[in-house]
Amino acid sequence: MKELLKKTSFWRELVQWGFFAWILYIGIRFGMFVRHFESNGVTPYITRPSGVDGFLPIGGLASLKLWLFTGTFDDKHPAALVLLVTFLLMSLIAKKSFCSWLCPVGTLSEATWKLGKRIFGRTFTMWRWLDIPLRSLKYLLLAFFVKILLIDMPAYAIASFIQSPYWSLSDVKMLRFFTHVSTTTMVIVGITSILSLFYKNFWCRYLCPYGALLGLVSMLSPFKIRRDTSTCTNCQLCTKACPAQLTVHNATAICNVECCGCLSCVEVCPQRSLSMSTGLERKPLPRWVFPVLLLSIYAGGVIIGMVSGHWDSSLTYEDYQRLVPMVDHLTH
Ligand code: SF4
Ligand code: SF4
Ligand code: SF4
After folding, report:
1. CA atoms of 312 and 332, how far apart (whole Å)
2. Distance, CA 194 to ligand 1 centroid (Å)?
3. pTM over 0.85
4. Which atom, in ligand 2's list, is nearest to the CA of 248?
5. How close is the Cα of 265 to the center of ligand 3, in Å?
6. 331 falls in which pLDDT band (50, 70, 90)?
């Protein structure tokens, strides 16, 4: 047990699954909240968990532009903007750690390739000629959203969109996406899940535009995996452990958009030659510093959002009573 408590992977999995359970709890509560309005008040009323806005990152991106250009903070789903800014800040400071420590999709993705490894005894590496073009897909998706939301859509159009019933009900629509799964979604999720059994983090590596954005921002992070070349024996265990397929054993510092700050390389190094650090420290930072930092950024973002009054939606009980029955008729 004492040995287990010393393992970063143990603490990371604890945080990952704890956060996963928290998101599931939020999702169930939100489902009960919506059910109350769908059933015309027959089922009990549950207060809306504002954290559900974390599922609206694309809307959060539009709100970010509105906020930066006009100073108007979206009042319908303010937590979407708070969480987006928090995760961007987390990437700016603590690399793409949201992906390896908090994101529920990343947690499922990791569990899937680990299951695949148990079943098949190994994971597979994509051919290099295919890996590079496939990796560009997530940037194309990101560019698409950035063009539509940040370049083409003027601030006044975003302001009007934010006031529309469609945006007000975007959380309910998102719930519908999970509870009324379309055939197309099922096929895409099925194919991605099967591929994730064979290839590490298939969705994250090739298709997630959110991860692409966080990865680009993470390049500005002062934290990097650094290798002490004087103690390294070139055993390559770090490279074998890296889920992002980075060649850690021959780099002095990992400057790569794919590094998600999972610390797997640090944990397996028998020489303690690796550390996640800024390069300014006299001694390598203890391993607990990085996780504590990223969790503090998350907690800090949420607390600031709450105390500044930018967390709960301004939509009232009566608004939901009027809007929820319209959900299937709203197309834009
Ligand atoms: S790449 Fe996307 S889905 Fe994967 S862990 Fe990061 S944010 Fe989550
Ligand atoms: S695991 Fe450690 S000792 Fe082995 S190659 Fe990597 S940094 Fe060097
Ligand atoms: S370089 Fe280290 S911290 Fe970065 S993804 Fe690879 S194993 Fe994780």
Report:
1. 23
2. 17
3. yes
4. 6
5. 6
6. low
